[in-house]
Amino acid sequence: GVESPAGPIETALQLRAVGDLDGAIRLLYKALGNDFTNHQVVGVLASMLSENEQFEKADKLFERALSLREPDRMVLLNYGTYLGHRGKLRESVQALSRAAGQIARALAQSLHGGSFEGYTTGELYGQLGTAECNMARAYLELGEHDVTLSLAEKWMVVESTWEMASMVVSESLDRREVD
What we know:
Elements: H1 6-17, H2 21-32, H3 39-51, H4 55-68, H5 73-85, H6 89-113, E1 115-116, E2 119-120, H7 121-141, H8 145-152, H9 162-178
Antiparallel strand pairs: 1-2
């Protein structure tokens, strides 16, 4: 039978969590075999390759994941974050903005049933916070402090994002005084 994408992704995330990034990458390559058509697995593999500083492979696989179908919010979120780390700030903001829009729609749908595609309302809210905090970080690097603060400040009161949001806000306020 065909294994659901959650299987290898879940296992790979567990391997990464215990420090076996190489094992996680090997597992995802094995799960894909010669068939790189599962955008979710390809997207997670691209993220892990970028963590492992294999940027050329990550670039190719992100492009592949995004070309397979209308990119899903998690692929866009990971890709936007990756672009920000690579200094491609405008492209990062575009991808993260698209991700945030998709997450917001999923969040709205989850409010009726308590979840959407297996994600709880709380998890989706955390994804939205991550997307907006990463956008804020890109805007911080672009020197656009008003946008940075408007995106990040509201996430300082949410447990899953307060640390990232506080760091971005603090750095933005420090830099704004210098600018």
